[in-house]
Specification:
The protein is mainly α. The protein has one domain (3-179): Orthogonal Bundle (Arp2/3 complex 21 kDa subunit ARPC3). It has helices at 3-24, 39-67, 81-84, 88-107, 111-138, 142-149, 154-179, and strands at 26-27, 36-37. Strands 1-2 form a two-stranded antiparallel ribbon. Strand 1 and strand 2 (36-37) form a beta hairpin. Helix 1 (3-24) packs across helix 2 (39-67), helix 2 (39-67) packs across helix 7 and helix 4 runs antiparallel to helix 5. The protein is globular. The chain starts with a helix and ends with a helix.
Length: 180
């Protein structure tokens, strides 16, 4: 493994750790089974900074350690049961989010629109997987699932997406310099 590959593994592992920390920073909402967390901020940041491959790797590390039981999911829990419960679709949506965000960040050439479009479409991926899974697992109607699993989170997600874009723009030059 060359130096650059090793640095990318370290960055992916660091982002996985930050995603886990984001699970502990939660605000329970009284509207449903999905808490407000900072995980998606770090998922978006992983995609923006590391690209599709290594952003996805960072989320994959996080999901793997959670699946084997380490306490990295919301509430300091872990285990495969989380993938089958109400938040399972959102967890898988994190992987899709990192992949889409990273792909767009790597491939769109207009720097002023690139990061914004990447985080918007990346965030959308979380809901495209999370809300249908929530509906399926709980038996809620589409309206109820969207009402408890998406709508209350949109203002906070807009703030987290903005923070991810600002952080990426500040940190990206240092990461690129390290990887040269």
């Amino acid at each position: 493994m060359d130096r650059k590959q090793l640095q990318l593994v370290v960055y992916a592992s660091l982002m996985a750790a930050l995603i886990a920390v984001g699970a502990y920073l939660q605000i329970p909402l009284p509207v449903g089974p999905v808490p407000l967390v900072l995980q998606n901020l770090f998922v978006l940041l992983a995609g923006l900074l590391l690209g599709s491959r290594w952003g996805l790797a960072s989320v994959g590390i996080y999901l793997l350690v959670g699946a084997i039981g380490l306490p990295v999911f919301v509430g300091g829990t872990g285990g495969m049961a989380h993938f089958l419960g109400p938040t399972g679709g959102y967890l898988l949506g994190f992987a899709a989010c990192a992949l889409v965000t990273g792909f767009l960040a790597e491939n769109l050439r207009n720097p002023s629109a690139r990061d914004v479009l990447a985080v918007v479409l990346g965030s959308l991926m979380i809901y495209l997987l999370g809300v249908p899974w929530l509906k399926l697992v709980t038996g809620m109607s589409w309206e109820k699932a969207a009402g408890v699993g998406m709508l209350p989170f949109l203002p906070g997600d807009a703030i987290k997406a903005t923070a991810a874009v600002l952080l990426a723009r500040a940190i990206r030059p240092m990461v690129k310099h390290q990887l040269e």
